[in-house]
Amino acid sequence: MNFQLGLIAKKIGMTQIFDEDGTRIPVTVLAAAGNTVTAHRTSERDGYVAIQLGFGEKQPRRTNKPDAGQFRAAGVTPRYCVRELRVAEAVLGEHPVGSDIPLSIFGEGEVVDVTGTSKGKGFQGVIKRHNMRGEMAAHGQHEVYRHGGSLGCRKTPGRVMPGKRMAGHMGNARVTQQNLKIAKIMSDEGLILVRGTIPGANNGYVTIRRSVKTAIRAGKNKG
Asked: Does residue 176 sit in the same domain as residue 98?
């Protein structure tokens, strides 16, 4: 599990920038300014250590009473997107409740993991959902060109086994894109440019954290 501090961001869209030698770099623009610490979770009180971040202002009349009370106690305006990030114990002291998390916790060229909700594709068949090839379109074949074929299992156990690749709902799931490099940080505009694509549609909310695989490799190298 990734116990690194991160940021909540809003996906603006994709564009391109150019390197010093003129190489075109496709990037995703993320608006990440305005991350505020709304609560702490401690092992003594909650059984785990985490920091709760709020992002994007929300109209007070659309905030329920429990959330409004929590925001009032933290001294912040109601937030639209609230998420908890598991962190180390020392991070809680560095970022008290009510403080803002700056974009400077990341650096240009740093490798990060971005988690978001993928685009929903609705109900899809096995060809689009699982990249199956379908049946042969030959003489005698009738109305089963895009079917999934036999589900197998015979008399014993006589049922479809869990995890069988079949038609069903596609997309709209939590997806983490790993090992993406930060191409540029525009602190004045509150923007982070991440190289490549990230999950989700424009105006969706994502979480940026330091790459867990990079951290594991660094720990092994120290050992």
From this structure: yes
Identify the sign of the CA torsion 170, 171, 177, 181: positive
Q: Give yes or no: residues 26 and 12 share one domain.
A: yes
Q: What is the pLDDT of residues 22-42, one digit of tens each?
A: 999 999 999 999 999 999 999
Task: Please give the Cα distance from 205 to 54 (Å, whole number).
Answer: 12
Residues 108 and 207 in one domain: yes
| 89: containing domain | 6-120+171-222
The number of residues making up the chain comes to: 223
Residue of 190, 193, 202 whose CA lies nearest to 11: 202
| Contact of 81 with 55, CB cutoff 8 Å | yes
Element (H, E) at 94: helix 89-94
Are both 93 and 29 inside the same structural domain? yes
Can you give the pTM of this predicted structure? Answer: 0.85
Q: Omega before 157 cis (within 30°)?
A: yes
What the block records as the tokens of 155 is 């008399």
User: Count of domains in the chain?
Assistant: 2
